[in-house]
Design a protein that fits this description.
Chain lengths: 392, 231
């Protein structure tokens, strides 16, 4: 029982909440000031009378380094000042630590110095809307170097003809200088968008950007991208995809782009004139090679807009390989182009002439020639049955 | 503006004797006819809970080293100097101090020690969450967020251990107003420094506590299981 009582007493004394709060040992002035780079400062440290310390018992440190005694001055029996000239930008954004010490090194008081520059106008504001549902904007800070102070960025927007300022709330969605507006956006009407940068030393406002949501529409990459062989043709692959579902209901003629590369190369070949189709045949490929193919979409002409939209991300790469053999050229040929054009052209002309002048040979035509070629390759086909669309 | 975090409570006088209850239980169970399907899940649960809590404590200790390093660099020198030791200014203590006499600490019952741990981490979590939301880089904020989630896990884990051992959870203290927040930025930096320091000490000591507790619990479990198998 006595032990428990002793325990109780012990805990009572141990908890400092029962000690009456004493005054701070010293007071620094100015406390936590904000200063422009290059400015000077005189700070004073006044010790509390309870501590029985004199001005000559004190010294200063800035960010852990002792300041020279030559810059000190005793302004009174318990007050020591220090002069700091041509201050550099703060070493850390939480402020430089200016500390007043007693002779034995103990900390009496401290003040955080915020030394820096006012912010510069943010620049390069670019925005995009995903499927006309939202708006994401990103910008770059005005200063290439630092302001040394923590800078807050606020993206604001308003309808051009309407008037009320709105503030974007969701930051850092697409990098450190970005913001996302998820809803309540109007179409067919221009918005004014700008970014305000502020820190302890001031505010800077970017130029205003004006845009209509419909002008900056992007969408998801095409879905269900399939790449397959074209029969046994060794230099061709057929790419098929579906238009992004989100914009299916909106009248637009999407444009597509395909890029492909050989497995070991980092050089992408781009096929630009795919137009509005959802399939394409790549020709002029190397036989027996693995290719990676990606497709992307541009919601061109959405709601009748004459402007191009913003290209979507590339679809995930799909791999496929061409069968073994050889040939060469390039481009997307929906009609299934044949290489060695001179021979083919001559043959076409020949068959044309045959049709006109030879009766009973109506079946003879370029189509028959194509079929003969396919048959020729089939009979030569053997090993390396890599199935199309194999992901390696 | 940091939210109101409850100030340090007086340590309550430890009550109850876990060992006494345990011995009684063992005696009682040993005298029962052997039950083929002796449900040991309660005791087993406690052992596993304790192990999990111990592991979590070690994980947090490790995480804290990196977090503290980054945060102290953000505060700048002298806070990130290895021998830095600022005074604990005698204001109303906000952060629960881990520096209690070790013999005294060990003299407490398991219940009292667990309760002290539970209360301390709940408050430490509260203060940690209040660390400046604008602080430093996005990376620092992200680390802080992750650490707070893990610390929340520790608080819950301790609650789990207490309930599996049959101890009542300490009642949540009402947050009284008027706990003074640091009056200037430098004092706030010192508070932040001590918060991290105390957290380090608490985690270091808790690891030892849970390791010791782990060794106490299983032997009883083994005994009970053998009893069941004997039939």
């Amino acid at each position: 029982m006595i032990e428990k009582l002793l325990l109780l007493l012990f805990f009572f004394f141990f908890t400092p909440s029962f000690v009456s709060p004493a005054a701070d040992p010293a007071v620094i002035s100015p406390q936590d000031p904000t200063l422009l780079i290059g400015s000077s400062l005189v700070a004073t440290c006044t010790v509390s009378p309870d501590f029985h310390l004199k001005a000559e018992d004190l010294y200063w440190t800035l960010n852990g380094r002792r300041l020279p005694a030559a810059s000190y001055a005793a302004l009174g029996p318990t007050t020591l000042s220090v002069a700091l000239a041509r201050l550099n930008g703060s070493k850390q954004q939480s402020g430089d630590n200016l500390v007043c010490h007693s002779r034995d090194g103990g900390i009496l008081a401290g003040s955080c110095l915020y030394v820096g520059l006012p912010p510069e106008k943010p620049v390069n504001i670019t925005c995009w809307s995903k499927n006309m549902k939202d708006l994401t904007c990103k910008w770059a800070p005005g200063t290439e170097g630092e302001t040394f102070l923590h800078t807050n960025y606020t993206l604001k927007y308003k309808l051009r003809w309407y008037g009320r300022d709105n503030t974007c709330q969701e930051y850092h969605t697409a990098g450190p200088y970005s913001c996302h507006i998820p809803k309540d956006l109007a179409l067919f009407t221009p918005y004014e968008i700008w970014v305000e940068a502020s820190n302890r030393l001031g505010v800077a406002v970017s130029d205003v950007v004006m845009l209509d949501i419909l002008d900056v529409v992007t969408t998801d990459p095409p879905s269900d991208v399939h790449v397959s062989r074209v029969g046994d043709l060794e230099d061709q692959l057929s790419v098929r995809w579906s238009s992004p579902p989100a914009l299916k209901d909106f009248l637009f003629q999407a444009k597509y782009q395909i890029q492909y590369r050989v497995e070991d190369s980092s050089e992408w070949k781009v096929v630009d004139d795919v137009g509005n189709q959802t399939s394409c045949r790549l020709a002029g490929l190397r036989p027996g090679t693995v290719y990676f193919v990606q497709v992307r979409c541009n919601p061109f002409g959405i709601y009748g807009s004459k402007k191009a939209g913003i290209w979507s991300d590339w679809s995930n790469p799909t791999a496929a390989s061409t069968p073994r053999s050889e040939r060469a050229a390039g481009g997307c040929d929906p009609k299934g182009g044949e290489q060695n054009t001179t021979l083919r052209r001559e043959l076409k002309q020949f068959f044309g002439w045959v049709k006109k002048h030879a009766y009973g040979c109506s079946n003879l035509g370029i189509k028959l020639y194509d079929q003969w070629r396919v048959w020729l390759q089939k009979s030569h086909k053997t090993r390396n049955q890599v199935l199309p669309g194999d992901k390696l | 503006l940091s939210p109101l975090c409850p100030p340090s409570l007086r340590h309550r006088v430890p009550t109850g004797d876990s060992w006494g209850i345990f011995t009684f239980l063992c005696a009682a169970l040993c005298n029962l006819p052997a039950l083929p399907a002796l449900n040991c899940t309660e005791e087993l649960g406690a052992g596993q809970s304790i192990q999990k809590t111990y592991d979590l404590t070690r994980y947090l200790e490790h995480q804290l080293r990196t977090l503290a390093g980054t945060y102290l660099n953000y505060l700048g020198p002298p806070f990130n100097e290895p021998d830095f030791n600022p005074p604990r200014l005698a204001r109303v203590e906000r952060v629960p101090s881990a520096t209690v006499d070790l013999d005294l600490w060990r003299g407490l019952t398991d219940n009292a020690r667990l309760a002290a741990n539970y209360r301390a981490y709940s408050r430490l979590l509260c203060y940690l969450r209040a660390l400046d939301g604008q602080a430093g880089t996005a990376e620092l904020r992200h680390r802080l967020g992750h650490f707070c989630s893990s610390l929340q896990g520790l608080v819950l884990s301790i609650a789990g251990v207490m309930s599996s051992l049959g101890y009542p959870l300490p009642a949540g203290p009402p947050a009284p107003p008027g706990t003074p927040v640091a009056s200037n930025d430098f004092l706030k930096k010192m508070d932040d420094f001590w918060l991290l320091k105390e957290l380090q000490t608490w985690l270091w000591r808790s690891a030892k506590d849970f390791n010791r507790l782990k060794k106490k619990v299983p032997p009883a479990v083994v005994t009970l299981r053998l009893e069941a198998r004997g039939f």
